[in-house]
Amino acid sequence: MKKLSILLVALAIFAGCSDDSGSPSDNTGDASSVDASNQDASTLDTAADEDTASPDAGSDAEISTDAESDATPDADTSEPVDPTGCAPLPASAGTEVRVSPAQVGELPQIVRDAASGTTILLEDGTYMLGAPLQFRTPGVTLRSASDDASAVIIDANYSVNEVAFITASDVTLAHITITRAVDHPVHVTPGSAGVDVTGTVLYGLRLIDAGEQFVKVNSNSARDAWVDYGRVECSYFEMTDAGRPNVERNPGGCYTGGIDVHSARGWVVRHNEFHGIYCAGEGLAEHAIHFWKGPRDTLVENNLIVNCARGIGFGLVENGQGRAYADDPYPGVGHIGHYDGVIRNNVIYADIPWYDTGIELAQARGAKVYHNTVFSTDAATGFFSSIDYRFANTDVDIRNNLTRRITVRGGASGRVENNKEGIDASYFVDASNLDFHLADGANEAIDKGVSVSEAGLDIDGETHDKGAAPDLGADEAK
Prior knowledge:
Radius of gyration: 21 Å
Structural class: mainly beta
CATH topology: Pectate Lyase C-like
Largest sheet: 13 strands, parallel
Shape: globular
Number of strands: 39
Mean pLDDT: 87
CATH class: Mainly Beta
Keywords: Signal
InterPro entries: Pectin_lyas_fold, Pectin_lyase_fold/virulence
Number of domains: 1
Helix content: under 10%
Region (Disordered): 17-99, 457-478
Signal peptide: 1-18
């Protein structure tokens, strides 16, 4: 059996709320999972859905589920590895400008004045930032000179609302830590001119203790310009006990989350870790990864989400703002919270009372949810569902997942087959230490899946074709 201490693949080469009272069961029929339509899950929607700060608004986008990435999986898992241990992002061509911590007062102006093609290299140290970094010119990169995010710390000290404010295309942030933003460590939105922003790259970042969403992406206020084809890879998100008291409380009591993307097309979120994004009894935090208000073609894969209030969300509400696409992929359907997209090979784990839902699909049409491992212990007393799909416009494909429970509400439909519900810790090598490789005796998961065309790679970067049939969940054991 393969050993991996914290579970996801390392990358190399460049490149609401009730106790689980259901008995363990296989879910092999069409939408035969628990019907939770009568459950009171109002808490699922209590986190504030609008960011009304002046720079915020909404967003829209498109991308292939096999988008190119510098995070190429390495199938050699002979030693334990860090799931965010990706190869450094390759250097950009063009002008380089080196900045030291002693120049922190000049850094906002250096960023504003940078010409297209400039790479700003931050030398090791702590940068006590007093003003936002405004990226107004396309093609600017900000990264550490050492490619060690832990060695370059931009500390907003809860005095700067948004640390990196991006309104231009092809901006890259790589290998830096951003901590203690009043609102967002990173915010990407178009300007008022109605020009789309594309090509945002957030790579190898450490984002710690945000007051609101750690990464915010949305359209301009006129909703005529969008933020499309971006990616968040190989990054680490954490809300610590020290940071939690600084979370914005209004509206909803816990207005924070990991990645919050409105109306964007073609984003990729892969090989990231999320830890501790919750509030202790003060409201339900948003998802670690959330795409809503009509995004399209999102790929969310190979992420590790630990002790967050909610894991991954496509859509949220029954009706509201959306995005219209010229090809109108689902004519006459009404409000769509998320168009198409794939959620695969993610691991979501919780053992805290404030965990609610692992994967949430709300007015999500065409989404594919394959080979995810979603497990919580009995200590997660607020647990509602591992995978929840709801509302009449939802039509999804949910297969080959390992879960405690799958719920359907509000007239949602889907192909829901070859999943396992009612799992416990015995399915895994060492769940308490975040090793979610399948145990040798996990016979109800091994070879119990079906082949799907967009299965992707498992947590070790391996294909799901090692045995007589694919295994359930995010690990292919053989």
